[in-house]
Amino acid sequence: MAEGPPKTTKSKMLSGAQKQNVNALIATKLRGYYDSIIEEGTPPHLLDLLEQLHNAETEAKSKK
Question: How far does the chain reach from its first CA to its final CA, in angstroms?
């Protein structure tokens, strides 16, 4: 006997409006996390490493 697709209850199904609300909530949370990371800025030790890399590349180019 062939079985059909699994049965779902109404509580497991979301309407289109509910899905949009969930997506909007996720988007809001992600934007908040992203904004907080941007506000932190670049850590000083990383800026120092980038400056060292830039200086090394500049020196290597000047030796050519």
Answer: 78
